[in-house]
């Protein structure tokens, strides 16, 4: 199982600020998923990136997959309190037999 | 997105008893289901992977006799915590991978288990 690293681990910002969180691995991803988890709930899939250099937008969220497919970033524009949560990157390995996650970035957006 | 239903959402049990948690994919068939445990303010720790009709594959350090996993159909997997102890108290989450996709999985709502 290849490890996923995420940074920063914790982030606390004011409403309206922009932020970027990162997901990295020493090995190449075939694909990568980003999830958001709120307290007491299961993670919710935000996006899947597959192609190196790919950029996907989901309202105020912009996801980028590195050209070498070893890293990915999530940028949030004008953060809102509703963006608060644990952001996880994850990937399925071994032909769908392993699904592992990074340690997550815990985001708190203060009103 | 696809819907995965996990039941119960909360359960309190006495030490020594067993608890069963169900994970159902409601609108797709799931060849593979994953079970996770999550400690407070931590990420998800993969416990085991189950394939329909096969024995589950457990991650290192996870006791298979303690955490019994059954994946009897393409839409249902169960996790039974046997002879529960207070240290088993945790948030347990399942996810299911559609048989049509190797790249995505969808999560249940989680089960908060408290052993008293």
What's the quick description here?
Chain A is mainly β and 111 residues long.
List the helices and strands and how they pair.
The complex is a heterodimer of chains A (111) and B (116).
Chain A: E1 5-7, E2 10-14, E3 19-24, E4 32-37, E5 44-49, E6 55-58, E7 61-65, E8 71-76, E9 85-93, E10 98-101, E11 105-110
Parallel strand pairs in A: 2-11
Antiparallel strand pairs in A: 1-3, 3-8, 4-5, 4-9, 6-7, 7-8, 9-10, 9-11
Chain B: E1 4-7, E2 10-13, E3 19-25, E4 30-38, E5 44-51, E6 57-58, E7 67-73, E8 76-81, E9 90-98, E10 106-107, E11 111-115
Parallel strand pairs in B: 2-11
Antiparallel strand pairs in B: 1-3, 3-8, 4-5, 4-9, 5-6, 7-8, 9-10, 9-11
Question: Can you walk through the features of this model?
Answer:
The complex is a heterodimer of chains A (111) and B (116). In chain A, strands 2, 4, 5, 9, 10 and 11 form a 6-stranded mixed sheet that branches. In chain A, strands 1-3-8-7-6 form a 5-stranded antiparallel sheet, with no helix packed on it. In chain A, 0% of the residues lie in helices and 54% in strands. The model of chain A has no long low-confidence stretch (mean pLDDT 91). With 111 residues, chain A is mainly beta. Chain A is globular and about 40 Å long. Chain B is mostly beta strands and 116 residues long. Helices cover 0% and strands 54% of the residues of chain B. Chain B is built from no helices and 11 strands. In chain B, the strands form 2 sheets. In chain B, strands 2, 4, 5, 6, 9, 10 and 11 form a 7-stranded mixed sheet that branches. In chain B, strands 1-3-8-7 form a 4-stranded antiparallel sheet, with no helix packed on it. In chain B, a hairpin with a 5-residue loop joins strand 5 and strand 6 (57-58). The radius of gyration of chain B is 13 Å and the shape is globular. Chains A and B meet through strand 5, strand 9 and strand 10 of A and strand 4, strand 5, strand 9 and strand 10 of B.
